[in-house]
Amino acid sequence: MINTFKLRSLGMALALVGIFSSGAAHAAGDEAEDAIRDRLEQSIPGLEVQDVSVSRVDGLYEVTTNNPEMIYATENGEYFLVGDLYQVSEQGLSNVTEQGRAEARAKQMAKVDHDDMISFSPEGEVKAEIFVFTDIDCPYCRKLHQDVPRLNELGIQVNYLGYPRSGPGTPSFKKYVSVWCSEDSRAAMDKAKNGGSVPPTSCDNPVEEQFRLGGEVGVTGTPAIVLEDGNMIRGYVPADRLAQGLGLL
Fold first, then answer.
1. Spatial distance between the Cα atoms of 186 and 190, rounded to a whole number of angstroms
2. Locate the Disulphide bond isomerase DsbC/G N-terminal domain: which residues (predicted)?
3. Are 119 and 130 a contacting pair, CB within 8 Å?
4. Angle formed by the axes of helices 139-146 and 185-193, to 10°?
């Protein structure tokens, strides 16, 4: 997180901010991307522009950066706004920015090797998969784990990724590593989620990488449930309600 660039609320998103008083010639295509990148990075210390693309709104470009909030900028980079873009249509209110986040999140999650996850699969047909960023010591993560048999019964495969909220090097982080490195990681997960002690062990593991991935896809707490389409459910949801949302009940 960039201390000098704190992005807060939708109210802030509605405030159009000028970062230069002098005008600039209109740019197009690659020129617009270069103009936006140069102006923002020069004006905001620590900001790194990762991608610039045309938005659904004429005259505005979506700017993805190393900050989780989306930036929308004019094509010459002179003005920008921060936050989520909403669309009002006959179907109601929709969050355009979150739709884009979900698409990007789905692509990121598709790159994760299933062998790096701790998965609990149905005995029969897998009708849906969920990807759960979890913390061994999180009470609601433990509550969700109690629902895993029911989720499996409903045809939902549960894939766990490590997100020990206290971060690398902490007891919770080491506990997750021990679970992942156990000879039977599923049994170790069951034991740890039920409050049992798992023998400390270590090995080459993906936990720190998954922790970083969680930050990249917008995890702010646990459990964080990512669906196959990239949409994220933040927090615990009972098994049957989750299945209903997935169209399985």
1. 6
2. 28-98
3. no
4. 120
Cα dihedral: 49, 64, 209, 95 (round 10): 170
Structure tokens at 150: 């029911």
Does residue 190 sit in helix, strand or coil? Answer: helix
Domains and CATH numbers, the chain: 10-89 (3.10.450.70), 109-245 (3.40.30.10)
Whole-number Cα distances in Å, 132 to 155, 162, 190, 233, 239: 16, 8, 15, 9, 13
pLDDT digits (tens, 9 = 90+) for 164-185: 999 999 999 999 999 999 999 9
Asked if 185 and 179 count as a contact pair (C-beta separation under 8 A), the reply is yes
Q: How many residues does the chain have?
A: 249
CB 232 within 8 A of CB 223: no
Q: What is the pLDDT of residues 11-59, one digit of tens each?
A: 343 333 343 333 333 444 678 888 899 999 998 899 899 889 888 888 8
Question: What CA–CA distance (Å, rounded) separates 138 from 175?
Answer: 12
DSSP category for residue 116: G
* φ, ψ (nearest 5 deg) of residue 69: -80, 140
Whole-angstrom Cα Rg for the chain: 21
Residue 92 β-bridge partners: 89
CA angle 123, 125, 126 (to 5 degrees): 95
Q: How confident is the model over 192-235, as pLDDT tens digits?
A: 999 999 999 999 999 999 999 999 899 999 999 999 999 999 99
Residue labelled with tokens 């896809």: 217
